[in-house]
Amino acid sequence: MNPIAHSPHAHAPLSIPKIMAMVMLALTPATLYGFWLFGWPAINLWVISLTSAMLGETLILRMQSRPVRPALQDGSGILTAWLLAISLPPTAPWWLVVLGSLFAVIIGKQIFGGLGQNVFNPAMAARVMLLISFPLEMTSWVTPAPLTSAHALSWLEGLRTTFLSQPLDAMASASLLGHVKTEFTRGVGLDQALVGHFSTMDAIMGSRVGSMGETAALFLLAGGVFLIARRIITWHAPVAMLLGVAVPALLFHAIDGNHYSGPMVHLLSGGLMLGAFFIVTDPVTSPNTALGQFIFGAGCGLLTWIIRTWGGYPEGVAFAVLLMNSATPLIDQYVKPRIYGRDRKGAALPVNKES
Amino acid sequence: MKLFNLRGGVHPEGHKALSALHVIRELPLPKHLYLSLQQHIGAPAAPVVQVGDRVLKGQVIATAQGNVSAAIHAPTSGTITALGDWVSPHPSGLTAPTMTLASDGKEQWIETPTVADPFALAPADIAARVGAAGIVGLGGATFPAALKLNLSRNSGVQTLIMNGGECEPYLTCDNLIMRERAAQVIEGIRLIALAVEAKTVLVGIEDNKPDAIAAMQQAAKGTSVKVVSMPSMYPMGSEKQIIQVLTGNEIPAGGRPADIGVLVHNVATAYAVQQAIRFGRPLISRIITVSGGALNQPCNVEALIGTPVQELIDFAGGYRLPATRLVLGGPMMGQQFTNTQVPVLKGTSGVLALTASEVGQAEASPCIRCATCVRACPVGLLPLEMAAHIRVSDLTGAVELGLRDCIACGSCSYVCPAHIPLVHYFNYAKGDLAAQERSKLKQESTKKLAEARTERIARIERARAEAAAKRKAAREAKERAAAAAKAATEEA
After folding, report:
1. Of chain B residues 73-102, which have a CB less than 8 A from chain A?
2. Which residues are within 8 A (CB) of B425 and not within 5 positions of it... i.e. 6 or more apart?
3. What is the pTM of this model?
């Protein structure tokens, strides 16, 4: 005899591993582009991040005597490590990656009770931890050296960069947001600072200085649109985040164009595209309702712009996300859907026979 | 006609073509029929025949008990052979008081009162005849129809909505009855409208049934009945949702459709009403969808109430693939059953034999707060939050989030990527709440009885004391009188 089962006796063809796989698929173009753009160090970085996340998850679950297999199979740990990897400088040393990846899955997720329980986005928590602890390593950027170009690093050189922290002085560079900030401290305005450092076309295509998989705005956007089309995510948080950055940028740029970067510079810089489509859409740490997600996204965007503009760090996506993560329970408390037959306050609608 | 938007909802795969392509066929007469006394919401019917009695087709064999109940009629002629417990369509296989009728194969009808012009009947008369026919809501709720008609007329219903939504996957019985018996259905609808004196009559049919819409529109020509095509979405056929999509109004929380001047009935009920009024035929059969990927020839059958489900499965050619799950009703809200000897009830709309891939069951994994359930909920609830409260037995918290507003449609469970049985949590919590309320009532009444007893004892004591005091006073008075008399005698 069959065990007793409750209705419904049918199920939509969706599961958590499928959702995670879909997100990874959406990340693949940007990641492959990052591999090509930054060469072997980027590939090493990605492999180390994923491997250490899986090992770390196995270790912590063993220590807690909890089943390991389901946690590894749901794909969430791999996705977290993946997101962390592409948000790191491509030439980051191996220990930095290992540390970040372990922090993400152990402190960021499993300590809270595993999948679905964490308050903060694990990848962003790890990124912020690394940025505060190792500011030098986390802001050492290199100019892109595509795998197919003449000055690309060989496989062996890639290993040396990742594992022996071989200095790459010849290729050292600054990210756009960092460069602008530095120029401001020297009293140089945007009219000069941006010259030769920002081209909208390069930024869209991703051929710029930056984190491993954050540079290709177009690929990230395409991945995000794919996820929205497949109904894995909704448009609310991403659009709100982009607006949260673009609207104040537009306003302040109009007021003082020499001191405030315009919306295009902001939208196509740093980790904004990755953040908008892959970070603020993290279901675990974002609100439940469409309106809540919109508020959350807008908050992330606005905070990002504020930190970039007036904060001590050139980039603010990770900080903004963590700050808004902590506001998620509050948003969920106040933003709830209206229940059928009740008004917004929860009182029953009036009886009306004439209608 | 302008339609109104609904919140949430899901689009499960319909699987309707499995059974919708064939005409309704009549099931061969079964040897035995098992007639449960509880085929409706309310009090079970009381038997009025005894074991060994011969009954005619359409004869009353159990009468309604109390206000909310429905009579049961013999679906064929034959002999009552038993009155006792028989397996009921409960997932656990519970038994229920059931009459067994051995058919004699003669199909001999009892004399039935026919009405030449049913539209000349008084509204109360129509309701009385519907009640006498033992008609209940055939959409699945099985609420006694006559009671609903009377309540609606008394509360001044303006709009009659006929539910032809049939949003449950697999089920096509309403589709076929509208396609093949549109004239009778329309007549039944007009009779219901007459019984409640409704001014507007709307028939809502999902747009995945174009043939049924066409047939009904054809049959409704020249009448005040308006046939409306609605978008296909689950749970469109839910009372609250069909009212919202057609009128834009919502039933106030905790209220009934009559609160906003609406009555909703199922189209199959309309057919039963027409048969009862025009031909005096009680509700002794219904159309049932027999479907599912595990069956050889899914179909729609007209089966007598009380037919063992196994006969329907046999009629559909038996199993083609192993049936992982047997379901009575639709897959979204239907009930699992395991014993195929369960009888067809008045509210049985479907018998499904589903394969493992159709059921799509999987182990539940942790909630990732993806809020797919929030988007799917047609009521506007937060299923994930409610389940989190129920998991730690915080029923108060779940009620504050709107547990009582949940219509148990199963949309949340259906879409949950973590396969969390959300609606199971909610039904469990509702059951627990009901039990708590019952025990509270019991406690209160026990307390009242105890108080009454204390008070009674005190009263008796008081009365006793008063009587004793009276006796004492009387005795003393007597003694005084005697003493006075004695003194008087002595003086004399």
Report:
1. 91-92
2. B386, B387, B390, B391
3. 0.89
